[in-house]
Amino acid sequence: MLKDFLEVNETWTQSLTQTTTITGVPPITTEVNITGKVLERDANLEVGSTTFENVIKVEVIQNTQGQVNTNYYWFAKDVGVIKYQNIIQGTNTTSELVSYTIN
After folding, report:
1. Please, what is the Cα angle at 4 between 70 and 79, to 5 degrees?
2. This prediction's pTM
3. Are 100 and 47 in contact (CB under 8 A)?
4. What is the distance between the alpha carbons of residues 61 and 68, in angstroms, rounded to a whole number?
5. What is the pLDDT of residues 13-35, one digit of tens each?
6. What angle do CA 12, 89, 18 make, to 5 degrees?
7. Are the C-beta atoms of residues 4 and 75 closer than 8 Å to each other?
8. What are 31-57's pLDDT values in tens digits?
9. Which three-class secondary structure string do you get for 17-71?
10. DSSP character for 1?
11. Backbone angles phi and psi of 25, in degrees to 5
12. Is 79 helix (H, G, I), strand (E, B) or coil?
C-alpha cells in the first residue's frame, strides 16, 4: 500500500481479483483496480496531542465495477498509519491513531 520510495505526485497501479464467500451463496468474484499517488512527503501532522514528523500522505483510489472509493492514508516513520480518511459515495469517514507503543 505504501510506496515510500516514490516522490510527490508519482503514482502506481495495481489490479486484483477479490472473491467474497458467504455461506449458502455462490462465491462472488470482483475485479478491483487501484491507483495510488504520493501527495506529500516529509510533512508534520498533529494527531491528538502528538506531532508526527516525516509523514507521507498517499491517496488510494479503488475502482470496483464502477464504484469509486477514495482513501487517504498518513504514514509516520517508524509508527505506521496515523490517520485515515475514506470517501465513498459522498460519505466522509476519518479515523486517527489514539495511542501506540514502540518496543
Report:
1. 85
2. 0.85
3. no
4. 7
5. 999 999 999 999 999 999 999 99
6. 50
7. yes
8. 999 999 999 999 999 999 999 999 999
9. EEEEEECCEEEEEEEEEEEEEEEEEEEEEEECCEEEEEEEEEEEEEEECCEEEEE
10. -
11. -125, 140
12. coil
